[in-house]
Design a protein that fits this description.
InterPro entries: AAA+_ATPase (IPR003593), ABC_transporter-like_ATP-bd (IPR003439), P-loop_NTPase (IPR027417). By secondary structure, the protein is α/β, with parallel strands linked by helices. The chain has nine helices and ten strands. It has a single domain, classed as P-loop containing nucleotide triphosphate hydrolases (Rossmann fold). Helix 4 runs antiparallel to helix 5 and helix 6 runs parallel beside helix 7.
Length: 238
């Protein structure tokens, strides 16, 4: 094996051993007088895909932003491996986050966006993918809403990080592409941990290795679909 690749592999292994668990607890968050999160515990390890579910407005996006560090909480404890994270600056290389809203620059060609966002190996992989190759010479503003989302998902899934937080990836995505994305996330989870929220709960159930629901400001681990009915997240007819 080429020395460069060998050392890269060793570095990656050491990195993941050190950063082998994301641990989040003691999260409290209010907006004005409205308390949103009061009693949160969530963890994620390399190889895990945590499905984060909850009714509209229960605080899923808020929790992901707090873990990532892009919004302040009234209280939070986030630890990655042995490293206590105090916010966005600490997390930059460890946690990547795909928000609900588009983040692509409008006037830049897709191939340039990929080169700016990813390292050389990842860039080549993304450019070659059947779903992305036809878009390469178009500017982001010339893509449809679903195409933009697809590109964002690829950028975030392939980018180097120990943990990836994804908010509603399947919004506006055609069913056939959803299958490709689920496969991609499963493959990438060999190297990292994912926390994913989406109202398309069947897709979450397909992928997730564990399910956590937010209810009344707290998190609860879910073991079966029956529990999702009991917590009032899906109807009895589902
Ligand atoms: N910047 C803000 N200022 C005031 N209230 C906010 C703000 N952001 C979120 N909220 C409120 O916090 C609550 C939780 O919002 P959040 O977006 O985290 O919920 P969610 O579970 O992701 O919802 P959905 O499933 O509908 O996307 C909602 O009641 C929302 O109105």
């Amino acid at each position: 094996m080429d020395n460069h690749i060998y050392f890269k592999l060793i570095n990656r292994t050491i990195f993941f051993l050190i950063m082998s668990k994301l641990h989040v607890d003691s999260v409290i968050k209010s907006f004005a007088t409205k308390q949103i999160l009061t009693d949160v515990f969530i963890s994620c390890q390399k190889g895990e895909i945590i499905g984060l579910l909850g009714r509209n407005g229960t605080g899923k996006s808020t929790l992901l932003k707090i873990i990532f560090g892009s919004i302040q909480a009234d209280s939070r404890f986030v630890k990655i491996g042995e490293k206590i994270s105090s916010g966005l600056f600490d997390n930059r290389k460890l946690i990547k986050y795909l928000p609900q809203d588009n983040f692509l620059p409008n006037h830049v060609k897709v191939k340039t966006i990929i080169e700016l966002f990813c390292d050389k190996n990842e860039t080549e992989l993304i450019k070659k993918h059947d779903l992305i190759a036809p878009m390469l010479n178009r500017k982001s503003k010339q893509l449809s809403g679903g195409e933009k989302r697809l590109l964002e998902i690829f950028l975030i899934i392939y980018s180097q990080s120990a943990y990836t937080l994804i908010d509603e990836p399947f919004n506006g995505i055609a069913p056939v592409y959803k299958e490709a994305i689920k496969d991609l996330i499963k493959k990438q989870s060999v190297d990292k941990g994912f926390i994913i929220t989406d109202h398309d709960y069947r897709n979450i159930l397909d992928m997730a290795t564990r399910i956590v629901i937010i209810h009344d400001g707290g998190t609860k681990e879910i073991k079966s679909k029956k529990e999702l009915i009991a917590w009032g997240y899906i109807p009895e007819t589902a």
